[in-house]
Design a protein that fits this description.
The structure is a single chain. By secondary structure, the protein is mostly beta strands. The chain contains three helices and 14 strands. The protein has helices at residues 10-17, 65-70, 84-90; strands at 4-5, 8-9, 22-23, 25-30, 36-41, 44-48, 53-59, 73-78, 104-105, 111-112, 118-130, 133-145, 151-154, 157-160. The strands form four sheets. It has a seven-stranded antiparallel beta sheet with strand order 5-4-8-11-12-7-6. The protein is globular. It starts with a strand and ends in a 6-residue tail after the last strand.
Length: 166
């Protein structure tokens, strides 16, 4: 029963979650050898103002999972509508993600999107197991606001701020 999760209809659960619009981020880091890694996440939130903490959730089956749980630092790039195709590439397993987009490196070599709505640089505070995901808790070390507006994910597609929902 692939559509049942402990008595819960998985398709119904997924459909219910799709009713909640959420922001879209591309989270990046670099491995010990300097290799860049990244993933798209809509499960991102502020956790604390004092100390400044955020959380982002990563699927344990993601190709980049080992790199992120071993990372000392990571970057959350809040994407704009112009990054929609790039966000889809970063959500695809096995894709050469950094062959696309105009990433720059910060002073520590971590990939950042210079035209992101915001860039939040973090130190990994803790990686907490959460079902089939891990919750990466980051201590914010730097935050920069860009000029673009963020995009949201709603009902399986991108929704631009100010757009009507059918």
């Amino acid at each position: 029963m692939a559509n049942q999760v402990q008595g819960l209809d998985a398709a119904a659960f997924r459909s219910a979650l799709a009713q909640f619009p959420s922001g879209v981020t591309i989270v990046t880091t670099r491995g010990a050898g300097g290799t860049p890694y990244g993933f798209t996440a809509s499960s991102f939130a502020a956790l604390s103002l004092d100390p400044p903490l955020i959380l982002v959730c990563l699927d344990q089956g993601a190709d980049c999972f080992p790199a992120f749980v071993a990372a000392e630092q990571f970057v959350v790039n809040i994407v704009t509508p112009e990054h929609a195709k790039l966000a889809m590439k970063f959500a695809t397993k096995g894709e050469n993600k950094f062959a696309h987009g105009s990433f720059e490196s910060d002073e520590n070599g971590h990939p950042i999107l210079p035209d992101a709505a915001a860039v939040i640089r973090c130190e990994l505070e803790e990686a907490v197991p959460g079902g089939d995901h891990v919750i990466l808790i980051g201590r914010v070390r730097d935050a920069r606001i860009g000029g673009g507006k963020p995009v949201t994910w709603y009902r399986g597609d991108f929704l631009h701020l100010g757009e009507s929902v059918a």
